[in-house]
């Protein structure tokens, strides 16, 4: 190497939740690297695992944004968008019917639905998409994906033949479904669910028990929703209620698996495949990944682990950068990270880390640019631990 810093760096962070998007994290690191290694080839590949930020990851990779209006979780129309390339569309549930789409933040645990998600899927199908990727996560509803299916033409009927309204609570009265009106384009379309959640639909690890409370469901609401989803599973596909991921996004995983014949893929694995991440690793001598908090949950299928796997397969060292790191040196080493640094190592105040994240990331980028991967691997790790020990 003729220069001290890395020649080609691939920046593949997830978002720093509550502070910066994944693209903003990559931009800040790139600015810092550019100051100390102006000749470095810096490739920005922000990533996501199927939840918030998934569409943005595809847009950063050059996909096209498609704009439209669709009903939010409580039915109020709002602008939204999805990513498109060729005959593949990537749609993020959270960006259409997620918690952030609740008018005034007012939760509706019994009535909120995924109907708007189905409107967006129909739009993609009607404009030629035949592979539809649904990023599951951040939903505001617990409707078992019923709203998604209703928007695509499924009729959910009560015992007297009347069609049920949207919302999870209504499913308690469901008696049968009518598939005859399903969108015709679904016949030759493939729906893929991108998620890092493996919860079943029902029970102590199901959609209601684990996630409904954060959507505003009180104990009596939770009991009602559990009964409603059990009834929904009974009339649709009881054998799929225990499928891993059926409980994702308030049970949307179940509805899509049962009626749309969808397949489930780990979110980060699918995202990296579709943005052709491995191609961009060619010639790289360092990959930088991370997220807001790197902790034990991160080790179980989160975005940084998927990036690590791809980089290690290509023989490229991987550095972790996070807002805070709650893993020991041994855990990080065993996880495959050759170096790591947290914003909290440079700025002890959590409030300042949140408010000044971009500026601190630039400082970290300067450190990355000033060192070769081989020389920096051990020293960066030791520097981080010395900073924590002060």
UniProtKB/TrEMBL annotation:
Coiled coil: none annotated. GO terms for molecular function: glycerate kinase activity. It is an enzyme of class 2 (transferase). Keywords: Kinase, Transferase. It comes from the Bacteria. Its EC number is 2.7.1.31. InterPro entries: Glyc_kinase_flavodox-like_fold, Glycerate_kinase, Glycerate_kinase_RE-like, Glycerate_kinase_sf. This is Glycerate kinase.
